[in-house]
Write a structure and sequence with these properties.
- The chain is of the alpha+beta class and 357 residues long.
- Among the domains are: 98 residues, RNA polymerase sigma factor, region 2, helix turn helix motif (Rna Polymerase Sigma Factor, Chain: A, Orthogonal Bundle), CATH 1.10.1740.10; 136 residues, Nuclear Transport Factor 2, Chain: A (Roll).
- It has 13 helices and ten strands.
- The strands form two sheets. Strands 2, 4, 5, 6, 7, 8, 9 and 10 form an eight-stranded mixed sheet that branches. Strands 1-3 form a two-stranded antiparallel sheet.
């Protein structure tokens, strides 16, 4: 039964490819649509950025349309698309000519700076597609966790590509070598180095790097307590929800328009430092001016933040916070003060004023 279904699917794919070669755009849309979300997630992992992923997918599909005559039916069309997308990302990363990370500043001082990925963005769960995202060495939660995406940005781009193709998409070393036009030996060497880097990072015990599973009920209960304490500006309760060694990280955010301010990266270690920051900086410490709504990002609990807009009594979308939870306590919060994330999370830019009574 499975073989018959696979054969039928392959036959349908070949028919669509034949139609595309005649210039049939509708056939092309039907051919690529089942893979679009998977490609987007792959490009996000490669770049750490939703907006970059948008651009890379668009460019990759344009290349696929223009190069359809080079596709050989011996290989799955999906693999051909991923090859194009991977190399498109590699070309873009090489063209930038600079690392994708910056040294973050510790607001509280007194400790070493943390390397923060430049322009790292969260990935809304609503965009995930389980069916087109198989997992091999990493399970589905690990392979999209914010800590994983952030750490792999610190790998050289080709190591990053090898790791994703081998350990996340479960390609063979030969398939990866053919895709990247290199030897199997170089693929194996790059994979070994990439795995070593990740292993050192995730075995360091750094808060927020451990991907753990807790019950949905416990997760929702902890998030509800955080939101309630935040909106009451109850810093004592907020502190009680954090691990003693918790981390708050805020990656850099590019200016949305020329002349707009660039948000520099920030990093705080420890419960006391985080509470000091929250009690002084967001809305000048008046957290009750910022409403929080539960969302999901990177298969982790998260909240969307809306800041009060005095001119009409409503609240304007401000950004997203993503939480790592270990042992029923928050071990890391990654904040993204990026109004451009609103559409990705399916949120209106504004919340109406809350009427009293």
């Amino acid at each position: 039964m499975v073989l018959r279904e696979a054969a039928a699917e392959l036959g349908s794919e070949r028919a669509l490819v034949a139609a595309v070669r005649t210039g049939d755009r509708e056939a092309f849309a039907s051919l690529v649509e089942p893979h679009r979300r998977g490609l987007h997630l792959h490009c996000y992992r490669m770049t750490g950025s939703l907006t970059d992923a948008d651009d890379m997918v668009q460019e990759s599909l344009l290349k696929a349309w223009r190069r359809i005559d080079t596709f050989e039916n011996r290989a799955p069309f999906r693999a051909w698309l991923y090859k194009i997308a991977t190399n498109t990302c590699l070309n873009e990363l090489a063209a930038r000519g600079r690392p994708r990370f910056l040294a973050a500043r510790e607001w509280s001082g007194g400790g070493p700076p943390l390397a923060e990925v430049e322009h790292l963005q969260p990935y809304p769960d609503r965009l995930l597609d389980d069916a087109d995202d198989p997992a091999a060495r990493f399970d589905k939660k690990e392979s999209v966790a914010l800590a994983f995406v952030a750490v792999i940005q610190l790998l050289p781009p080709r190591q990053r590509a090898v790791l994703l193709l081998r350990d996340v998409l479960a390609w063979s070393a030969r398939e990866v070598a053919d895709s990247l036009e290199c030897s199997v030996a170089s693929v194996n060497s790059a994979l070994q180095r990439a795995r070593s880097t990740l292993r050192a990072r995730f075995e360091s015990g750094e808060p927020g790097t451990k991907v753990v599973s807790i019950s949905d009920a416990s997760e929702k209960r902890l998030l509800a307590r955080f939101i309630d304490a935040w909106e009451r500006a109850d810093f004592a309760v907020l502190a009680s929800l954090l691990r003693e060694d918790a981390i708050l990280a805020m990656p850099a955010v590019a200016a949305p328009e020329p002349g707009s301010p660039h948000v520099s990266p920030l990093w705080f270690r420890g419960r006391a430092a985080i509470i000091d920051f929250l009690s002084a900086v967001p809305a000048d410490g008046h957290l009750e001016r910022i409403r929080l709504l539960p969302v999901r990002s990177n298969r982790q609990p998260a909240v969307a933040a809306f800041i009060a807009a005095p001119e009409d009594g409503g609240h304007q979308f401000y950004g997203v916070m993503v939480f790592a939870i270990e042992a029923d306590a928050i071990s890391a919060i990654t904040g993204f003060a990026d109004p451009g994330l609103s559409d990705y999370f399916g949120l209106a830019g504004w919340l109406p004023a809350v009427k009293e009574g």
